[in-house]
Amino acid sequence: MGGGGAVLVPELLGDEYRMTRARRVWSPGVSDGQHLGERPPQVPMTLSAFAVRGRSGARTGQESRSAGHRATPSVTVMATIESITLDVADPTAADRFYTAAFGLDTQVRFRASQAPTAGFRGFATALTVSRPGTVDSLIGSALDAGATPLKPAVKSFWGYGGVVRAPDGAIWKVATSAKKDTGPDTRRVDEIVLLLGVADVAASKRFYVERGLGVARSFGRAYVEFATGPSPVKLALYRHRALAKDVGVSPEGTGSHRLVLGGDAGSFTDPDGFVWEAVPPVTAS
């Protein structure tokens, strides 16, 4: 994973974190040995497999618990996350949008669904890139393809980034730790980071650790990043309301997450209603 880069966005952790860690800030794509403003590691855009679907968020009127999640699981290491699948009304239109907006092809998959959903779905996906020019390029093409702006791309304490909502309703954050361009825009995406907003970070962390996920980095009850092996798709947990605030939406929401993750750890439902479905690993040809 390109040197163990963290997906922590310091704004989510509040002023206390910023004051005590002012000289050591992690953001999407920044490895342990890097500081704010340095270029994140270059990671090839190849993914690996796993399926998440479920019902959104906690403390928002959405179903956040599943009767099946208390079963004692066998421990299986989830080494990789191969793909993100979005449940959408029109898979053809969704594929056209993501290809035009972000240049994504097999990394994001789609399947038809009319599952009811409203408001914040309890997750966001971050695209980590190497320079501000690439942020502007990707957000610009997303808006041209029909996305709705949630937060304009701006420079901040941790770097540069912005947030859009795709026509299917999924939220996408495009960010870099760099504040200045050091070369031409490449439209290269270095990492895909799935951010799940949960009611209790510590409880969800225990749940996933019991199922074999290793913890790459943890900040108490505010943030957890899991080790996902060689896959460029990372998984991280934030507090539900903090994630909603970071992407510029109300934390309220009802209905389906309309999200599927594919992997090899079996089928289960997490404490916040995200349902994971087993997907056979892809065999190299």
Key attributes of the depicted protein:
single chain, 285 residues, alpha+beta, eight-stranded mixed beta sheet, six-stranded mixed beta sheet, 5 helices, 16 strands, disordered N terminus
Summarize the structure.
The chain has 285 residues and is α+β, with helices and mostly antiparallel strands.
Largest sheet: 8 strands, mixed
Spans of 5+ residues with little confidence (pLDDT < 50)?
Answer: 1-10, 14-76
Distance between the termini: 22 Å
For the largest beta sheet, what order do the strands appear in spatially?
Answer: 6-7-8-5-9-12-11-10
* Number of helices in the DSSP assignment: 5
Q: What is the rounded Rg?
A: 17 Å
Average the pLDDT over all residues and give the rounded result.
Answer: 76
Spatial shape: globular
Order of helices and strands: HEEHEEEHEEEEHEEEHEEEE
Structural class: alpha+beta
Our estimate of the beta-strand percent is 25-35%
Oligomer: single chain
Helix content: 10-25%
What is the β-strand count? Answer: 16
Could you characterize what this model shows?
The chain has helices at residues 14-20, 91-102, 132-144, 201-210, 240-247; strands at 51-54, 83-88, 108-112, 117-119, 123-128, 148-155, 160-165, 171-176, 191-198, 214-219, 223-227, 233-239, 253-255, 259-263, 268-269, 274-278. The chain has 285 residues and is an alpha+beta fold. It has an 8-stranded mixed β-sheet. It is globular and about 45 Å long. The model is unreliable at 1-10 and 14-76 (pLDDT under 50).
